[in-house]
Amino acid sequence: MSPRKAAALRGSDDGLRDHLVATAQRLLAEQGAAGLTVRAIARAAGVADGVLYNHFSDKDELLAAAVGAHVAAAHADLGTLPAPGTATVRQNLAVYLRAGLTLHRAVLPVFAGLLATPAVLTRFAESRARDDDWRELLAAYLRAERDLGRLAPAADTAAATAVLVGICHDVVLTAMLPGATSPPGGSSVAVDVDAVDVDAIVATLLAGIAPPA
């Protein structure tokens, strides 16, 4: 960042705060949280170290905001998910599962890098609005489809949600294990969403919650 641009941002509290969050978000995505210091964030943002404390009580607060921005961006990248009553449940669940795999590929490495600093994750959890979370959208979708009669009346939609979320965790976390193939550097994970047999998974799930023929 150029000194001229940094100086311009210093004149706007909101602009500078957003710039610091965006910088921390980029560093988290590129290199993870390990070794990410206030000085490193300040240098990447083109400001003095002490400027961060004009907007955040400590580094944990800044990182929590950065994680929130990263998760929000990952959700935004998913686009609009299918609405209840459209297409078929099988087609829609395949879309939801692919979206979940893409989302978890983007956010789980960042969360894993913050396990040594639980205060950041706690602050993120306390500030996170859950109504637009992929898992909550999936759960609401399944409940709505059951109400529409497109799933069995006694279908345990909470269990079905947990199964699909668990598959996302398993695929991405397995790719993060030592020895797994990952792109060099940063916190990204090599997960080929298209290689996951989404259709087979959805078919197996629906065998248990689909309405009687």
TrEMBL record:
It comes from the Bacteria. The keyword Nucleotide-binding does not apply. Gene3D superfamilies: Tetracycline Repressor, domain 2. Transmembrane segments: none annotated. The keyword DNA repair does not apply. Keywords: DNA-binding, Transcription, Transcription regulation. Residues 14-74 form the HTH tetR-type domain. Residues 37-56 bind DNA. GO terms for molecular function: DNA-binding transcription factor activity; transcription cis-regulatory region binding. PANTHER family: HTH-TYPE TRANSCRIPTIONAL REGULATOR BETI, HTH-TYPE TRANSCRIPTIONAL REGULATOR RUTR. This is TetR family transcriptional regulator. The lineage of its organism: Bacteria, Bacillati, Actinomycetota, Actinomycetes, Mycobacteriales.
